[in-house]
Amino acid sequence: MKQFIQSLSILSIIIISMAASCRREPYKPDFEHAGGYVIGKETCKSNPDSDYWLIDLSHPANVVTTYGDTITVDGISYTNMIKTTELSPALKTVGKKVSFDFRLSRSKVSTTGCTSPSPITYNLKEMQIIAQGEIR
After folding, report:
1. CATH 2.40.50 fits 32-134, yes or no
2. How far apart are CA 127 and CA 67, in angstroms?
3. Could you state, in order of their start, the residue ranges of all structural domains in the chain?
4. CA atoms within 13 A on the CB side of 12
């Protein structure tokens, strides 16, 4: 009889837990995740480590989501372009496949305060990186 009551108690706990969890919304993170390619960087500051890096977030594994704009860099047209100053030194190689967890600015960001004699800048949305890594 004691075993029956224990089994019934455990079963009740499981059923109540399942019922309570069914009413919750699925977890939705407050950031985006996407893969892409390092395309290059702006030329603006006298210290090149302060320049924005250009990222094309059009990796085939991405869900059909548009994060950025279409621009032409060195005569090649890219879609889904954004920029960031937070790119890890290990990923600062043109053509490298990269993956990010990030937040994106709502509007485009203009690069200001250029000290380079012939600046090359792009008016794109800015990515704030939460996590980053190389896609192999």
Report:
1. yes
2. 10
3. 32-134
4. 6
Kindly compute the dihedral angle of the four CA atoms of residues 62, 65, 68, 70, in this order, to the nearest 10 degrees.
90
pLDDT in tens, the chain (136 residues): 778 788 778 888 888 777 776 667 788 889 999 999 999 999 998 888 889 999 999 887 776 678 899 999 989 999 899 999 999 999 999 999 999 999 999 999 999 999 989 999 999 999 999 999 999 8
- The first and second tokens of residue 106, run together, are 């709502």
Say if pTM beats, i.e. exceeds, 0.85.
Answer: no
Which regions of the chain does DSSP assign to beta strands (E)? 32-41, 53-56, 69-73, 76-84, 97-109, 124-134
